[in-house]
Amino acid sequence: MCLSVPAEVAELLPGHMAIVSVDGVSLEISIALVHDLAVGDYVLVHVGYALAKIDPAEAERTLELLQELGSVGQELGS
């Protein structure tokens, strides 16, 4: 099973690379597979690669669901 996480593009770098933010954490990723990106766009990230550009509303909804899942996991663990 593969999991990709929405991330906001914070900075475009040379060599098809970018800095993205995932829930406040900055990561350097490859954007070689996605064209026409700009700062502020959202992408799906899997193992250090942007796979696709996605709608900002969809990205926010997915991040909220992931946060809810984390909260449920913490409740079940206690």
The coarse silhouette is: elongated
Distance between the termini: 27 Å
User: Strand arrangement, largest sheet?
Assistant: 3-2-1-4-5
If helices are DSSP runs of H or I spanning 4 or more residues, what is the number of helices?
1
Radius of gyration over alpha carbons?
A: 13 Å
User: Main sheet?
Assistant: 5 strands, antiparallel
The proportion of strand residues reads: 35-45%
List the secondary-structure elements in sequence, H or E: EEEEEH
Helix/sheet category: alpha+beta
Unreliable stretches covering 5 or more consecutive residues: none
How confident overall, as mean pLDDT? 91
Structure description:
With 78 residues, the protein is α+β, with helices and mostly antiparallel strands. Helices cover 28% and strands 41% of the residues. It has one helix and five strands. It has a five-stranded antiparallel β-sheet, covered by helices on one side. A hairpin with a 2-residue loop joins strand 2 (17-22) and strand 3 (25-30). The longest helix has 22 residues, at 56-77.
Main attributes of the structure:
78 residues, alpha+beta, five-stranded antiparallel β-sheet, 1 helix, elongated
Structure described in brief:
The protein has 78 residues and is an alpha+beta fold. The chain has one helix at 56-77, and strands at 5-13, 17-22, 25-30, 42-46, 49-54. A five-stranded antiparallel β-sheet has the order 3-2-1-4-5, covered by helices on one side.
